[in-house]
Amino acid sequence: MIERLSLNSLKFFYYVAIEGSVTIAAERLYVTQSAVSRQIKNLEDLLNVALFERKNKSLVLTAEGKVLLDCCQNVFNQLDHCVISIKQQKYKNNNLILSCEPTISMKWLIPRMVQFNELNLGFGITLLTGGGPLDFQNQEIDIAIRRNDFAWGEHIYSTKIIDEFMFLVNSNQQGSSNLLLSTSRPKFKNYLAKQYPVISKLNTIELDHFYLCIEACLSGLGQTIASGFMIEHELDHDFFQVEQCLHFDDSAYYLLASSSIEEDHRKVIFRDWLINEMQQTQKNLLNKFGFISKQQELVAE
């Protein structure tokens, strides 16, 4: 009988069984209702049993249908594990290609790459710098670190890594009337004007990238606002004086991928490592300067 049994029919039966509706099953499978009904009819004819009965406008499994559903769940779970295993074999010993914003790459990620490689996880990281929208296939990227300041689309899988935290800093004790801002975040000025009006009244000098703002601040050209991840080294060595810690609501870093991260063990390992490292950086810097994170604020409330 197995040679006459259609895997497609079993798949259609499975979705009707778990949804209790031909209509919903058809929507999930992107086929017509008649196609689903036809597959169910073919399966019932082959097995010579009724798999469903209609009660109060819903489809309910018969005793035979329940037996078949249990079987399908076991088979499909095994197929899922098999597909994931095959993909992991493909990825084994291959580098993970990561795209990350330039300043975060230079100032935070690259200094940690030696430490990551020393873990001997069986794969390395190939780092590409870039920001904004992604084309995973054409750019040959596996994963990307991005802030949620643009719409990446519903087809992209995303995992939140950590909330953004930013400092207003100066390289000297006297302060400055100049504020160095990066043009890479165009909504920055409007947000400052709304949430931090005193800061927004400073004389603004705009530069193309955060790393230019950081270097200009180190040279004494003015104050700047930068992510704690971008100025960790300068803060650890007291090159900057912290004037204020700024919390940006709903601003966070995400790990993006074109498919589920769980399907690739390399992505899972890197995600967990990244979350741990970024959380530790944030905790250390906020504690050093006597600030608390947004999560701690929520707990305190």
UniProtKB/TrEMBL annotation:
<dbReference type="GO" id="GO:0003700">
    <property type="term" value="F:DNA-binding transcription factor activity"/>
</dbReference>
<keyword id="KW-0238">DNA-binding</keyword>
<dbReference type="InterPro" id="IPR036388">
    <property type="entry name" value="WH-like_DNA-bd_sf"/>
</dbReference>
<dbReference type="GO" id="GO:0043565">
    <property type="term" value="F:sequence-specific DNA binding"/>
</dbReference>
<dbReference type="InterPro" id="IPR058163">
    <property type="entry name" value="LysR-type_TF_proteobact-type"/>
</dbReference>
<protein>
    <submittedName>
        <fullName>Glycine cleavage system transcriptional activator</fullName>
    </submittedName>
</protein>
<keyword id="KW-0804">Transcription</keyword>
<dbReference type="Pfam" id="PF00126">
    <property type="entry name" value="HTH_1"/>
</dbReference>
<comment type="similarity">
    <text>Belongs to the LysR transcriptional regulatory family.</text>
</comment>
<dbReference type="InterPro" id="IPR036390">
    <property type="entry name" value="WH_DNA-bd_sf"/>
</dbReference>
<dbReference type="InterPro" id="IPR005119">
    <property type="entry name" value="LysR_subst-bd"/>
</dbReference>
<feature type="domain" description="HTH lysR-type">
    <location>
        <begin position="5"/>
        <end position="62"/>
    </location>
</feature>
<keyword id="KW-0805">Transcription regulation</keyword>
<dbReference type="Pfam" id="PF03466">
    <property type="entry name" value="LysR_substrate"/>
</dbReference>
<dbReference type="InterPro" id="IPR000847">
    <property type="entry name" value="LysR_HTH_N"/>
</dbReference>
<dbReference type="GO" id="GO:0006351">
    <property type="term" value="P:DNA-templated transcription"/>
</dbReference>
